[in-house]
Amino acid sequence: MAQGFKLEDHANAISLSLPPPCVHSSSFVAVAANFIKRWGNLRSQHKSKRLPPGPPRLPVFGNLLQLGQQPHRDLASLCDKYGPLVYLRLGNVDAITTNDPEIIREILVRQDDVFASRPRTLAAVHLAYGCADVALAPLGPRWKRMRRICMEHLLTTKRLESFVSHRADEARHLVLGVWAQAQSGKPVNLREVLGAFSMNNVTRMLLGQAILRCRISGPTRGHGIHARDPRAVSAFGGDIPRRLLAILEMREVEKRVDDFHNKIIEEHRKSGGKETREEDKDMDFVDVLLSLPGENGKENMEDAEIKALIQDMIAAATDTSAVTNEWAMAEVIKHPRVLSKIQQELDSVVGPNRMVAESDLAQLNYLRCVVRETFRMHPAGPLLIPHESLRATTINGYHIPDKTRVFINTHGLGRNTKIWDDVEEFCPERHWLADGSRVEISHGADFKILPFSAGKRKCPGAPLGVTLVLMALARLFHCFDWTPPGGLSPEDIDTAEVYGMTMPKAKPLVAMARPRLAEHVYR
Ligand code: HEM
Q1: What is the residue with the minimal CA distance to atom 42 of ligand 1?
Q2: Does the structure show a pLDDT above 60 at 124?
Q3: What is the pLDDT of residue 483?
Q4: How confident is the model at residue 491 (pLDDT cuts 50, 70, 90)?
């Protein structure tokens, strides 16, 4: 593995060559000659370290000004032009991007140890309690400990199973809300409905309460923050010119979010936590975190650590699943052929006399293809969360400097014409396996779709994310027929996106719902 040229090397070279005090002039000449020789060697060594190809750079800005409102598309175009691995200079930051399965495998799996860190951005410092969380923390013991807490105490199969009745209740609210709207003959704002479904599911697990009852499904108990707050989103996205604007607003978001978290922790402490053991199914995540010991023998975790984890879970779990659901609904309503195939499958697996249950989801193979196709075309994390190299290395013979920021372009991967045919066609059938076996959503050995990433930083909430997505879609397609509103035809549904940490549809999806089951099933 090649070592990077560092300023320290240069400084060492100079200091090694400095003459000792009171040296004779001839020895000074010898030392100077030696210095020039070594300097020349270092320069040629640096030159010989070939960076990956990339576009020409401006002084100071580098390539920053070449990235516009849709950096994922700009980066994919650069890969078309310069090859599967592209080098960029963003201001004073080295960066690489790729949309190629083999290079992605190299970065996320073979060289996971090198690339599994995160850049310490202002957004990470201000919105994640000084990188005390999981998602934005650089690789190190602190990240490892917080990630282990997530995996061992919050996202275990057993704990997720303990919330199954809460999830069923939220699915019931979802259907009842849409049903009431359908009775009134008004179109349904699917962004609102699906956002509330995800947020309430997550906050019931985390905080023990549904904090965002959607207007049409019950009283609203807004808490003043939303994971899709554009400021939070662009600040997290943090690596494009829009970031500058976001930074100006970050302090306000930071304060609002912190007040909310303090209130939650205070309420949980006041109620004395649950007087039950950790495995008790009534404990929410905050109860669990309050019951865990801290670092270095401390009795409890620090408040900042608890707040950072709550923040991470809300941000990572809600928007990702809501955005995916809205895209899937948009594509399916745009393609009535797909809607009728989904409904045929639901009618045969579930039938017309009951609601879909979580235990049905494994058998809904066509719906699983629909979700996989949605992830291909509209991955919730179009550039993942930026990774950063911990040391210099090489990929395909190219030098990658220390602290290089890595943009894995999952949007470009799903639309890479070298690995997919008809990339702009929404075609779930392409994922159907010849032997009819179960279609996996969260992973795929071929690295052609990567909705939850891979390696050390892969999403620890993938099973929960997949359940939330499948459940909402299965219920909505089983219970209702869907058409575009007011005289629009299916092909009029637009699929323009807005770049952010997650990548929603530019315009909220609005559609007409018509109940398709007998009335008693909804009640
Ligand atoms: C459809 C739903 C979801 C999608 C598409 C999704 C996708 C992702 C992606 C792409 C990453 C970045 C991985 C990387 O940078 O390499 C990520 C990280 C993460 N996700 Fe998810 N996610 C979803 C749901 C969830 C849920 C439900 C939770 C938790 C309750 C969660 C918790 C996290 C955390 C904590 C990280 C940071 C991991 C780390 O940096 O070590 N996600 N997710």
Answers
A1: 461
A2: yes
A3: 97
A4: very high
Distance of CA 71 to the CA centre of its chain: 16
DSSP 122-137: HHHHHHTTTTTSSTTP
3-state secondary structure of 408: strand
- Gap from CA of 488 to ligand 1 centroid (Å): 35
**118: CA distance to ligand 1 center in Å?**
14
Ligand 1 neighbours by CB, cut-off 6 Å: 134-135, 147, 150, 312-313, 316-317, 320-321, 324, 380-381, 384-385, 451-453, 457-461, 464-465, 469
For the whole model, what pTM was predicted? 0.86
Q: How far is the CA of 385 from the centre of ligand 1 (A)?
A: 9
User: Given phi > 0 = left and psi -120 to 50 = alpha, else beta, which region is 361?
Assistant: alpha
DSSP 110-166: ITHHHH-B----HHHHHHTTTTTSSTTPPSSHHHHHHHHHIIIIIS-HHHHHHTHHH
Residue with CA at minimum distance from ligand 1 atom 31: 461
Which residue type is seen at 249? Answer: E
Give me the residues paired with residue 405 across strands: 95, 388
